Amino acid sequence: MQRREFNQLLNTILRPDSIQDFCPNGLQVEGREQIKKIVTGVTASQALIDAAIAHGADTILVHHGYFWKGEAQPITGMKKRRIAALLNHDINLFAYHLPLDVHPAIGNNAQLAQLLDLEILDGLEPVANSVAVKGRLKIPMSGEQFAQKISTVLAREPLVSLVRDELIETIAWCTGGGQGYIDLAASQGIDAYLTGEASEQTIHSSREQKIDFFAAGHHATERYGIKALGELLAEQHGFDVTFIDINNPV
């Protein structure tokens, strides 16, 4: 498939125009015209680029790309080395951030829900395309049991703040760095909140507002959307797609 057609395909699937983001979604670095062999991964790190080069990929498709609002604009140092590697090997870089978080089927929140047996009922925010969602555990369980489930399924020991004695029935979640939504979840009387990261104030919010909190890792909670997108491209459009997981403890 030609690069422009591939970009249109991704935009049709993920609808980036429907949500305001902090970075450009779609083609970020132009490479070869023909898209045949794709490597997917969470972040366009040097390690992922090197792995894609070794794999003979013509395209890298990630959740975390480049050119974030507020970052330094000069292409120097780490940014220069990454972009130079892409250009020298004529590799396309496509990135989709919030559109991949919120997609109702292959998005990060939806994929995490499938893995942890959560049912999505609505967006947590009172807007279309809420980045955080809310729902319920299909089988209510204690905070200790849910923490163990996270550890088993994601192979990551979560940071936990358990402040309730009752079973968890309702839950809100946002993959990645979504800890700021805990207060909104608490204001709606939700039992627990799950995300990737925690800040110092997050634990105080949990304790003082009586909402159980789980931080399961930014990387660990966002491996699955990009992987599902790659699987869709392989199954429905015949691309050669390989997901490469570059470990990150955060």
UniProtKB/TrEMBL annotation:
User: What protein name applies here?
Assistant: Nif3-like dinuclear metal center hexameric protein
Q: Which family does it belong to?
A: Belongs to the GTP cyclohydrolase I type 2/NIF3 family.
Q: Print the keywords alphabetically.
A: Metal-binding
Q: Does the keyword Hydrolase apply?
A: no
Q: What organism is recorded for this protein?
A: Pseudoalteromonas neustonica
The record, for SUPFAM superfamilies, names: NIF3 (NGG1p interacting factor 3)-like (SSF102705)
- This protein's source sits in the domain of life called Bacteria
Concerning NCBIfam families, the annotation shows:
YbgI_SA1388
Recorded hits in PANTHER family, A to Z, give: GTP CYCLOHYDROLASE 1 TYPE 2 HOMOLOG, NGG1 INTERACTING FACTOR 3
